[in-house]
Design goal:
seven-stranded mixed β-sheet, binds adenosine-5'-diphosphate, nucleotide-binding, transport, ATP hydrolysis activity, ABC transporter, ATP-binding protein, ABC_transporter-like_CS
């Protein structure tokens, strides 16, 4: 079923006296278990769309149903609750806290979820193990390679068991070998049934996804998946 239903999504920024339509009418569904890659030139609206999909921001106009619930009009608290329950985030620059260990970074979302210390550590260790970093649990982020840091960030994104994972250029700062390792983890998450939305500039990364969406001037201009190509605009 459609985990994400977008209907006529617009995002207007006011800069000085000018209006800028960062998103100009996005209508699409993303189905449960899909692995969708968002591509498009710089400034086309990918980050704006990801912020809305990730419940970090609201559209100016349009409807966004997440698992059937309208979220476009939620207040900040309700939006944050939905986000923490349903969505895990992975960023280009990892966004780890530098003064705490890999394990404690992974456990962070569980603090906000009110999980007790012992269970936090057990669950965090389980996910560190799943990304192959059990033996690095006590290391600080700056004692890890870029690829290892991103694996810690992925474990953190998974620790709350969200069914949607959103990633903005997750391999943008990684070498070829680490990129391959990280993409294998995404493919594995996809096989396990999670819905993944990933922004990338690189066609080889987008090719790992089951669906490729091209964003241009705030609209989806191409939608391609499993051999089917649709020119939308
Ligand atoms: P992309 O991620 O594809 O590079 P963005 O979503 O960051 O594109 O930006 C889309 C357009 O919206 C750009 O013209 C950008 O300058 C503008 N924009 C993005 N965020 C803001 C903001 N907070 N305030 C004003 N304009 C913004
Ligand atoms: P990306 O590397 O994903 O393309 P951007 O450089 O487009 O990121 O944007 C980085 C951040 O700056 C985003 O959070 C975006 O909302 C904000 N931003 C982008 N363009 C503008 C703008 N013209 N005015 C204000 N904020 C902006």
């Amino acid at each position: 079923y459609a985990t994400i239903q977008l209907q006529g999504i617009k995002k207007i920024y006011h800069i000085g006296g000018e209006e800028l339509a960062a998103l100009n009418g996005i209508t699409t569904n993303i189905y449960k278990g899909e692995f969708a890659a968002l591509m498009g030139p710089s400034g086309s609206g990918k980050s704006t769309l990801m912020n809305i999909l990730g419940c970090l921001d609201r559209p100016t106009e349009g409807s966004y149903k997440l698992d059937g619930e309208e979220v476009a009009g939620l207040d900040d608290d309700a939006l944050a609750r939905t986000r923490n329950k349903k969505i895990g985030f992975v960023f280009q620059n990892f966004n780890l806290l530098s003064r705490i260990s890999a394990l404690e970074n992974v456990a962070l979302p569980l603090i906000y979820a009110g999980v007790g210390h012992r269970e936090r550590m057990e669950r965090a260790m389980h996910f560190l193990e799943a990304v192959g970093l059990k033996d690095r649990a006590d290391h600080l982020p700056n004692e890890l390679s870029g690829g290892q840091r991103q694996r810690v960030a992925i474990a953190r994104a998974l620790v709350n068991d969200p069914h949607i994972i959103m990633a903005d250029e997750p391999t943008g700062n990684l070498d070829t070998k680490s990129t391959k390792e990280i993409m294998e983890i995404f493919e594995d998450m996809h096989e396990k049934g999670r819905t993944i939305i990933l922004v990338t500039h690189e066609p080889e990364i987008a090719a790992c996804a089951s669906r490729q969406l091209l964003v241009r001037d705030g609209q989806i201009t191409r939608d391609e998946g499993k051999g089917v190509v649709m020119d939308v605009v």
